[in-house]
């Protein structure tokens, strides 16, 4: 960072400011700058106390709409970090906020609906000492929330009162690496997540998904047999896209998992290393148009009854399923199917050879067939 950048009082745009160890490159350099747009402040671990942080005068920068604050892992003043972040209170015109690497034991008081009333997007990452998340559910304009690698003490995304409307504008929610997260809301009510459309959940082994009437897209990743509570996915009845990628020890998925997903159009299942079979409730997916199965190394077959119900299926992709032995008889009756791809499934590839393979009669009606061993 060039020294004494604060002397450039006509400077309007400063994309990144790295806090230095010398006075000429500390937060006081931002005090008299009338900054516009966005700024990323890094090396906040070098800020010794709240007095130094207040020198940045962020609360007066009404034209600053995007603020990213990052603490790194080298020498730092951990005991002062709560006060430092408290002193970095932004102006209420802020629309984007990112906090990464903060090690204080709690988030600042300004992270509420008064200061963050215009915020549309928030990212909180590697804040491992905060046992409770801010009241994000109160923010009226929040559309996107990303939470990653938080404290093992966090059990709920929001612990607010059920009588209040929570997350009224939230459309996208990403949560990752919260070991003991039990649910999204401690107290569920009728007017919570009313417009939420998209969710990504990564490695949250204790999380159970509540009933959410508006969610259309869900991606789940995990690595334990008890992760996510797959049966709770059936609570998302409006789902049109579901992608699950895991390395579970489980040999099967819950039978009830697909029963309520009448609107599902895309289903992707990847890297279930010990998955031997799919549930017959697959037959409930009458609206499904595309099915992708990848890296399920011990999967031996697709369920005969389950496949019969996929009457809207147009695309089927099977990749790296080395134990898959044959295709179900019902495949020949899926008249909407126009695209079949079989890659790295050696036994199945041989059975699907054009004209001579034992399974060729099941797929001869499909216009576009791609087989690669």
TrEMBL record:
<dbReference type="InterPro" id="IPR055414">
    <property type="entry name" value="LRR_R13L4/SHOC2-like"/>
</dbReference>
<keyword id="KW-0677">Repeat</keyword>
<dbReference type="InterPro" id="IPR056789">
    <property type="entry name" value="LRR_R13L1-DRL21"/>
</dbReference>
<protein>
    <submittedName>
        <fullName>NBS-LRR resistance protein</fullName>
    </submittedName>
</protein>
<dbReference type="InterPro" id="IPR032675">
    <property type="entry name" value="LRR_dom_sf"/>
</dbReference>
<feature type="domain" description="R13L1/DRL21-like LRR repeat region">
    <location>
        <begin position="27"/>
        <end position="147"/>
    </location>
</feature>
<dbReference type="Pfam" id="PF25019">
    <property type="entry name" value="LRR_R13L1-DRL21"/>
</dbReference>
<feature type="domain" description="Disease resistance R13L4/SHOC-2-like LRR">
    <location>
        <begin position="231"/>
        <end position="345"/>
    </location>
</feature>
<dbReference type="Pfam" id="PF23598">
    <property type="entry name" value="LRR_14"/>
</dbReference>
